[in-house]
């Protein structure tokens, strides 16, 4: 009789233990899920946080009638400036490209630039109109008619929307970088250190990835600016929410800082 009683007690304890163990596992699981959700929420919030930028937005203190130190190369027929945001209307058949296949030269896209001597870090936040093939909003450094770099967010014929760089030394190359799906805006960084130039991109303006590193001919002063193009479509509206140039020499050109 005592044996039966002891067995019943053991079974009751075992049942209680299993219930407790199951509840503990369930509690641990939900704690993990909620923690992941909170982390994801914090990450999303950090991605949307306005990045700290030491250099001022050059678009903030200019207007349609007063561009300050900035100048146009191929001035567009229409552009609008409002509270630090520039919208450029790029006409059809506007581009910068020296085709290596037939040496045909296109040098017609609007470029808003500043003359810069020495090393620098240039930043731009771009929202291109990607409705047509090869439409792009870009950062650009222009040494002369046959030596320049264009680094932008483009609707490539090869990959669709993505990061594209064109390095021109007498003729242009055409390099497709990361594909950007379901992305409207992107941050671009172009860094000069001596005669070397690095190109970086970022979703949030804080965490940059290098897309390319190239050497260019020696030059004391060059044009540094933002470019809007529409080589193939009927026209495009490209938006620039930030453009800055900081006269500094980075320690590591591959990191851009």
Would you give an account of this structure?
The protein is an alpha+beta fold. It has two domains: 1-48; 71-246, Jelly Rolls, CATH 2.60.120.200. Helices cover 18% and strands 45% of the residues. The chain is built from one helix and 17 strands. The chain has one helix at residues 2-48; strands at residues 71-73, 78-82, 85-91, 96-98, 105-107, 111-117, 120-127, 136-144, 147-156, 160-169, 171-172, 175-179, 186-193, 196-202, 209-215, 221-229, 235-246. The strands form three sheets. Strands 1, 6, 8, 9, 10, 11, 12 and 16 form an eight-stranded antiparallel sheet that branches. A seven-stranded antiparallel sheet has the order 2-3-17-7-13-14-15, with no helix packed on it. Strands 4-5 form a two-stranded antiparallel sheet. Mean pLDDT is 86; it is low at 1-6 and 16-47.
Short description:
18% of the residues lie in helices and 45% in strands. It has 257 residues and is an alpha+beta fold. It has 2 domains: 1-48; 71-246, Jelly Rolls, CATH 2.60.120.
Give me the secondary-structure topology.
Blueprint lengths: L1 H47 L22 E3 L4 E5 L2 E7 L4 E3 L6 E3 L3 E7 L2 E8 L8 E9 L2 E10 L3 E10 L1 E2 L2 E5 L6 E8 L2 E7 L6 E7 L5 E9 L5 E12 L11
Antiparallel strand pairs: 1-6, 2-3, 3-17, 4-5, 6-16, 7-13, 7-17, 8-9, 8-16, 9-10, 10-11, 10-12, 13-14, 14-15
Helical run tally: 1
CATH fold node name of the largest domain? Jelly Rolls
Order of helices and strands: HEEEEEEEEEEEEEEEEE
The tally of structural domains comes to 2
* Largest sheet features: 8 strands, antiparallel
CATH hierarchy, class of the largest domain: Mainly Beta
Strand content: 35-45%
> Mean of the pLDDT scores?
86
The total beta strand count reads 17
- Our measurement of the CA-to-CA distance between the termini, rounded to an integer number of angstroms, reads 81 Å
Low-confidence stretches: 1-6, 16-47
Pairing-aware structural class of the strands and helices?
alpha+beta
CATH architecture of the largest domain: Sandwich
Helix fraction? 10-25%
Rg calc: 27 Å
Morphology call: globular
